[in-house]
UniProtKB/TrEMBL annotation:
The lineage of its organism: Bacteria, Pseudomonadati, Pseudomonadota, Gammaproteobacteria, Oceanospirillales. This is Ubiquinone/menaquinone biosynthesis C-methyltransferase UbiE. GO terms for biological process: aerobic respiration; menaquinone biosynthetic process; methylation. PANTHER family: 2-METHOXY-6-POLYPRENYL-1,4-BENZOQUINOL METHYLASE, MITOCHONDRIAL, METHYLTRANSFERASE. Pathway: Quinol/quinone metabolism; menaquinone biosynthesis; menaquinol from 1,4-dihydroxy-2-naphthoate: step 2/2; Cofactor biosynthesis; ubiquinone biosynthesis. The gene is ubiE.
Length: 243
């Protein structure tokens, strides 16, 4: 049986999300590579290529976890820029921090424990904000969109990389089977935790589809909102600009 996590009280979802990521933090990168067959690297690469991040920029990577995007952005902004890797979960943040320090990223990255729903930054601070595979874990997604809009500079860009809805029924069937059968098994064998991966599959299925998320961004006040499907809609990259 599945969690049905969106039918449970808010505090329950918050606690489950916290438990999942405390549990998987140490194995997160390995599982990402195995579960996606390495394709998550391509999805992230496409996101970085379209970010427009330049030297001197200030970038916020919220729900940044183990820092894949932050590491690339740190190189792009140079020492005169800044990247903030923010995550609600201190276990994920610690794994990310250790990984980046070990790969020689220092001087222009800040690590901040923060909730996307109420970001602890001044208005109009960032040139670019990314949230990769994070929004579906956030309880109040509209509050998170409003908060991200507030801390973006006018003209700044929000990029949301997230699992989405496939348009092809055969692909959807395969994908559901994979998510609810193979994925939890892999979680059990490799990370000793089937429940966390069952939660992930469930959270993907419940996440708003492409058009719904685009509408939420419009309602929050973003302009030029658009999305681009990757891998047949398994993943979508939504972007929007702060007017
Ligand atoms: N962005 C990284 C990546 O693409 O590999 C990590 C993605 S991981 C699947 C999701 C992350 O979202 C976790 O590290 C989790 O702690 C974080 N998260 C969940 N809810 C959050 C919230 N309300 N605010 C900030 N981060 C949150």
């Amino acid at each position: 049986t599945h969690f049905g996590y969106q039918d449970v009280p808010v505090e329950e979802k918050v606690k489950r999300v916290a438990d999942v990521f405390h549990s998987v933090a140490g194995k997160y990168d390995l599982m990402n590579d195995l579960m996606s067959g390495g394709i998550h690297r391509l999805w992230k690469r496409l996101t970085i290529d379209q970010s427009g991040v330049r030297r001197g920029h200030k970038v916020l990577d919220i729900a940044g976890g183990t820092g894949d995007l932050t590491r690339k952005f740190a190189r792009m902004v140079g020492q005169e820029g800044k990247v903030v890797l923010a995550d609600i979960n201190d276990s994920m943040l610690k794994v990310g921090r250790d990984k980046l320090l070990n790969s020689g990223v220092t001087g222009n990255v800040e690590y901040v424990q923060a909730n996307a729903e109420c970001l602890p930054f001044d208005d109009n601070t960032f040139d670019v904000i990314t949230i990769a595979f994070g929004l579906r874990n956030v309880t109040d997604q509209n509050a998170a969109l409003a908060s991200m809009l507030r801390v973006l500079k006018p003209g700044g860009k929000l990029m949301i990389l997230e699992f989405s809805k496939t348009d092809n029924p055969a692909l959807t069937k395969m994908y559901d089977f994979y998510s609810f059968n193979i994925l939890p098994q892999m979680g059990k064998v490799i990370a000793g935790d089937a429940e966390s991966y069952r939660y992930l599959a469930e959270s993907i299925r419940k996440h708003p589809d492409q058009e719904t998320l685009k509408g939420m961004m419009d309602n929050a006040g973003f302009v030029n909102t658009r999305y681009q499907n990757m891998t047949g809609g398994v993943v979508a990259l939504h972007t929007g600009i702060k007017p």
